[in-house]
Structures are given as structure tokens and as C-alpha cells.
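Subject: two folds for Thursday's group meeting

Dear M.,

Sorry for the delay on this. The cluster queue was jammed most of the week, so I only got both jobs back this morning. I'm pasting them in the order they finished. Each block is the input sequence followed by the predicted C-alpha cells. Could you check whether the formatting survives your parser before we put anything on slides? The first protein is the one we discussed after the seminar.
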Amino acid sequence: MAHYADTICAPASGSGGAVALIRVSGPSALAAADAVVAFRNGKASSAKGYSLKFGSIAGVDDVLVSIFRAPHSYTGEDSVEITCHASSYIVSRILELLVEAGCRLAGPGEFTQRAFVGGKMDLAQAEAVADVIASSSAVEHRVAMNQMRGGYSAELRGIRDEMMQLAALLELELDFSEEEVEFADRGRLMSLCVSAREHCSRLSDSFRLGNAVKNGVPVAIVGAPNSGKSTLLNALLGDDRAIVSDIPGTTRDTIEEVCVLGGVKFRFIDTAGLREASDVVEKMGIERSYAALEKAQVVIGVVDGSAPSAAADGAEIAEKVSDGQKLILCYNKSDLVSGAFDAAGCCRISAKTGADLDGLRSALVAAAGPLDGSETLVTNARHAAALSAASSSLSLVEDGLCSGLPGDLVAEDLRAAIASLNGILGEDITANDVLGEIFSKFCIGK
């Protein structure tokens, strides 16, 4: 359980740099800074907000302290940030001194949790903070920044406003139900409901794309044994991640690795060679290959372009790809083939020499779709479930309006839809155990 009367402290910078940052927040933050740091001029507790003060911690380090007075800080509380040299000893010693001065070490995500509780951001924005920190591609960063800055929340509030208009009209009728007065235009109610439901459904459906942005577009590398799948994976990653051998069936399980191409994160899955196998272990690997193929958004079909059966092998792979997937056929081993290449619409590459891999990379980025991060995408499974629930509740509202269901029953389904959106924004979540579960996934110091 969080204790918001406490003053908390934690390192707020990663390792490996020349300087480190220690964050302190809470009612006694300024007093704790005065107890630990001997300032050259004045004290932290007498400084104005947004102040920088130079000082020393005896026997430890010279420090620069940033002072933020409530409510003008990340958490909305009095806060200080102590910049020191990035020695692990210096950081841990300053933390010890802060604890001796009455602070306690912060838990995971506790600073952001306090920002949410203090009204500095809604829950959707708070959850996006962790996504910004974890972002590893340009698109993922843009989506997370849009959410953290409130663009996503504003869209959700727009949908909720439409629902509130519906609710207000229905509640007005309920207040005058004994007079049998119908204030609401049923056509207008239906129009508002359909608009809100379609908006919720669109956002919920965007989770598939948002999940790909966040966790990587799933790409299955499939083909016959010795076609060069593992060599291609290593070439794309720029690392010897998969074992390469002339012996068929070397890869017996799926291998997953993440790589960023053109600002988009891809999750490559190298699979066991597709063939008839008598070996039990290899059979299991091939079964997993088919499972990976079914779940992939993009399929790279690797064909030994030097084999006489190349065209037939490519056609066989194409038959295994479903309509909702993007297929990129790669005729590999171009370094062993001379003459013209007549496989239209396919990539001719050499995974061994790296020839024409740039063309494959461009094809992958194109196959991933318009992932520029400018549109609103749902990247959080909890949000996707809540939006789906809201859409289902609004469908019941539509059914009720069409069938002439009493207004009080229709209003009940509408309240459920509004509650689902409030759950995303955190406006009906107050239980500490629920908040603890959400923020436990954050890093210390944020």
C-alpha cells in the first residue's frame, strides 16, 4: 500500500554515464536536501521553485540540486533532483544519507503513481511513461509520446463525451417517466451511440497493429532445409545468432530476435526447415514452424535460388500463407546463379554475401504497413479489453433503442460503457492494490 505522506528517493538515471540523477519527492523533500547538502548560498527550503543550487556533500561529492516546489513538479509534490558523479559508491552513499534524513527508498513506478494520484496525469498517460522509457524504435517512441502527452486520452474523452450526451438525454426522460414525456430524439440517440461504438471498435481493433509497434512486427522466416534461413537471420541482425550448417535439419526449434529497420521494430522468427521428417525432435520443430507461420504478420519465404525446383518451392510456400499475411519470397544464393532472374515481384538475394539485402529491408518496411506513429494506436492489452467491453455495451444500447427497451435498462448498459472508458483513464480506479499492480512493472526512479 502506498503511503503518500512519505518522502521517497531513488536513482533516476541509468548506469554508464558520467553523471547520475537522484530524485526526491514528498512533503519533506526540501528539508531532506538541506540535511544532506551544504549549499553555497541559502537553503533548498527557502528557494523558489525551478531553482538550481550548487552544494557539497561532505566526504562524498559536489552536487547540483534542482528544486521544484509543489505543484510544479513531476509528482505535484515538493521535489528535488540531485545531480552527482555517476560512481555507484557516490549514488548509494547519497541515498543512505537521504534515508537517514527521513526519506525512504521508492518502489517501482512510485513517482509516476504519485503523479497520477496528484492529478498531474491520467492513468493512460502514466502507463505511457513506461512505454516511452522502453521504446526502442522511432515509431514506438512517437506512439508512446502521443499517449504520454494526452493525445490518446483526449480521444477517449471525446468518445466519453458522446456517451455522456446520450446518458443525459436518457436520464432526463427517466426523471419525467411518470408524465410519459419523451425528450430524446431516438434518431439522435442512435446516431450518437453508433458513432461512439464505431470509435471504440476502431481503437480496439488497432491493438493488433499497436502490439506490433510495441513488441515488434512478427516475421516468420520459412523455407526448406538448407535454403539459407538461418544465414539470412544472421545477416539481418548483423550477428551470428543462429547456427549455420550444411547439415539439413540443424535448426530444430524457433529462434526469435528483435531488430529495428527503417524506424520499425521487427520480431524475426527463424524456423525449422519445412519437410517430411522421421526424427521426433525435428518433427516437433517443424510443428512449431507451422505455428509461427500462422501467427506471423509478414512471412519471408526463403528459396534456394540455385536449385532446379526453385519456382516450385516458392509456389509451395505461397500456398501456406493466408490472405491476411504479407509474403516476401526471397530467392537466395544469388552468388551461385548466373544469368537473368525471372521471378517477378520477388527478391533475389545472397544471405551469405549480403547482396541485395537492402531491397529486402525496404520490402519488409513496406509490408509492415503505414507505421508512422501519427495515428492513435492502442498498445496496452488492458485498454484494448476495456474498449472492446465498451463497444459491446454500446451494441446492447443500440439493440435496446431499436427494440424500444425501457430507458432505465438502456441507461444501465450505457453506464457500463462509460465505466469501461473511465477505467482506462483511471477515473474510477482508487484501490491501492489495482494501482500497485499497474505500476509494479515500472522501473525504480520513475
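Second protein, same layout:
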Amino acid sequence: MTKPVIGFIGLGLMGGNMVENLQKRGFELVIMDLNKDAVATVVARGGATEASSPKELAAASDIVMLCLTTSAVVEKIVYGDDGILAGIKEGSVLIDFGTSIPASTRKIGADLAAKGAGMIDAPLGRTPAHAKDGLLNIMAAGDKETFDKVKPILDEQGENVFYLGALGAGHTTKLVNNFMGMTTVCAMSQAFAVADRAGVDRQQLYDIMSTGPSNSPFMGFCKNYAVDGVSDLGFSIANANKDLGYFLEMVKDLGTRAEIAEGTSHNLEAAVEAGMGNGNVPEIFDYFLKLQK
């Protein structure tokens, strides 16, 4: 069976490694990114060509994949004069691997459906290293027939591919997941900072907490930075701040409030304003350590 041609926009750490994995598995790719060095690296491996616009990329592809930073960027790529919507073929599928606002995802999906194309939202779990080996966690949602159509390709990229139902459920789940994860990191980082200011040894605090039910991989990441000075959770404060903002927007659309998330968002935003946005999330410990009343 002939492999589908894949268009891929977004060759950052995650997207670039996803593309490398697809190339290793023999897929023909059409690619785009503002980083021309990243484009050149992919083209040099063979089996990939660069498109001049999202419209051209979509017209040349059976499946279009996005690994972009924000909903605003996704909408610009989709709706621009030379955007995906202008070029996508009937029967093609758009897969958004980024973390986007569910309402935006559903809007794009409806507009694609009007042109006879499908959409899957499929945000990712795990790291760029997992992406290179096709071992991501993928939270996919959309029309079941469309999902079944692209699942063999998702299986090439993910060790665990979850089907979550109607379009937007993947992005909803990812935002809930990131709310829980980033709130946990903020709480644990602040615990280490308060302990330090109170004269409690941070290593001893970890030794005690890690023997109880609070122990988790997130505690390990927080301890690695707060105690050992090693920043090894590859997710930036700026990205966490963006995701919490999206979570709060989603919650507002649902007609409720998430006061814990509001607190997490406040702390992340303050750390970004303090110039710490490029640091990994456990580095918010430094913000809490210096925080004055």
C-alpha cells in the first residue's frame, strides 16, 4: 500500500524529531518552517521538499501535520490568503499536534469539513527524544472514521495513541493534564523555597516527602533543580504560562471558574514578567525563593 504524502509545518524540537522519525520510516514529506537551517537539515536527509506556502504544502499532501506554538499561529497558517484552507484537497486530513484552544480547533474543523477535509486534534505527551523514536503519547480526537484513517500513521509516531472522542477532546485533555502538571510543579517548587527560607534543609525535605504519597516524577524534577541545580524538565515557563492561559479560557467557555488554576497562572505570569520565561518550569523555584510579601 502506498504511503500517504505528509505535509509538516513546525520543525522545532518536537516537530523536527517527529519529522526525522517519519523520514526513517520511509514517508515522503513536504515541509515548512521559518528556521531555514531546520528545513535544510530535513531536506538533506532525503525524501523531503520545502513548500513555499501552507497552501502549496496542503495541495501536495494527503495528511497535513502541524506542530506549532499557539492557536493564533495555527489560525494564521490555516486562514491566511495562502493558507491551508485555500489549498487542502478533498479527503485530506489536518492533524494539529500542538496545544490549542478547543473552541478554535472545533471552528477550524468545521471549516475544513465544508471543503471535504477532516481534522484530528492530537496533542502530545513525553519528550522530543521520544518523538525521534516514535514513542510519544498521543491524545487524539475527531470523527472516528477520520481517526481510523490516520491511526496507522499515528502509530508510527506514538507508543500510546488514545482516542478521546469528538474533535477538541484531545486539546481539552491536554490542557487539563498540563493544568495538573504545572500546578504540581509550582506547588512543589514553592514548598522547597518556603522550606529554605524557614531554615529546613531542602534535601531532607525531599527525603521525607518522597517516602510518602506526594512522591512523583514531578517531585523528582523539582528536587533535581531546587536541591541539585539540574534543570531537566524540558518545558519552559513561557509555554506553561501559555497553556494555563488557554486552560482558563476553556474553563470560562464552560461557564465556571478554576481558582487553583488562576493561582498557578498568576505565578507563571509573574515569573515570565521577571524574565524567567525561557527557563524550565522547575526553575520557578528561584522566583519563589526571592518572593517578598
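Two things I noticed about the second structure. The first helix runs from residue 13 to 24. The chain has a mean pLDDT of 97.

Cheers,
T.
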